[in-house]
Specification:
flat, alpha+beta, 5-stranded antiparallel sheet, 3 domains, about 280 residues
Length: about 280
């Protein structure tokens, strides 16, 4: 299965924060100008709106942009007034996750050993196999028994895919060796892990089911979006009290302070894959 949605109609343009601020001020004018250029080029693509993101801007179109459309958008942005073209990275269409599973491997694949394969072992095997060349994992592989008392396991892998699902189609039903065993790759539904809300960062339900109206910071659990932690987090603001002197985090630097995970209280952020709830 491959994730779907409005992201298919987005064009991502990474750029500096100064470029974002300069470009987004005249977003309405830019939308109109780009649409004029699309019409002159006899393209059916039109820009619906432009929005700012933490690492750049996103141009949302009425349909999936074609290569010729991407060239036009790229040239327009780099030639815009007050935009430093040297601080604009190569634009790209969004990537999507495809979900796969690998079957046919015993839980203890090593001869005369009760050591089972780990996620790190699987990553090494995939790196060494030519059918996974140019394939990027979206998360660490998960090794799970077929049943609690089974002697076989399933390896769940999430990969980054393009809009045509090329990578997933290339891998499904392919076989490869893990030691002396032959493993088979199959398509899968979205991973079976417990969902994590991206609004409050609690586990057990998806974001659309969250009942908290305001977003929570993934780092400190403050009442603001994670990307605004540097501006609103108390830890980044100066405190001149004698008993708790704290210097302000310099502008442009990320927050250097450490917090406990709000779920397991471990030394990591709430969205870390080292969390016990992951």
């Amino acid at each position: 299965m491959t994730t779907k949605g409005l992201l298919r109609k987005q064009v991502i343009i990474p750029m500096s924060k100064d470029n974002v601020n300069a470009f987004i001020k005249n977003s309405l004018l830019h939308v109109s100008s780009m649409n004029c250029q699309f019409q002159n080029a006899k393209s059916e693509t039109l820009v619906d709106y432009i929005c700012a993101k933490p690492l750049g801007i996103t141009v949302v179109t009425n349909k999936v942009a074609q290569p010729s459309d991407l060239i036009l958008i790229d040239q327009y942005i780099k030639n815009s007034n007050k935009v430093n073209a040297l601080q604009v990275e190569e634009l790209r269409l969004p990537k999507f996750k495809s979900y796969l599973k690998i079957i046919g491997i015993p839980y203890y694949p090593h001869n005369n050993s009760h050591e089972c394969l780990t996620s790190s072992d699987i990553e090494e095997v995939l790196k060494q196999n030519q059918i996974f060349d140019n394939i990027s994992l979206a998360s660490k592989p998960r090794v799970i028994k077929v049943l609690p008392k089974s002697d076989m396991f399933i390896i769940w892998i999430d990969i980054w895919n393009d809009q045509s699902k090329t990578n997933a189609k290339m891998l499904i039903n392919r076989c490869f060796n893990i030691g002396k065993y032959i493993a088979t790759i199959q398509g899968a539904n979205m991973n079976l892990a417990v969902p994590q809300c991206k609004n409050c960062w609690k586990w057990g339900y998806a974001t659309f089911s969250c009942r908290i109206q305001s977003s929570k910071c993934v780092k400190c659990n403050g009442p603001y979006k994670s990307e605004n932690h540097r501006d609103f987090g108390w830890c980044c603001k100066a405190n001149n009290k004698i008993n708790s002197l704290r210097l302000e985090t310099k502008k442009g630097e990320s927050c250097p302070h450490k917090f406990k995970c709000l779920n397991c209280h471990g030394d990591h952020q709430a969205d870390s894959n080292t969390c016990l709830f992951w």
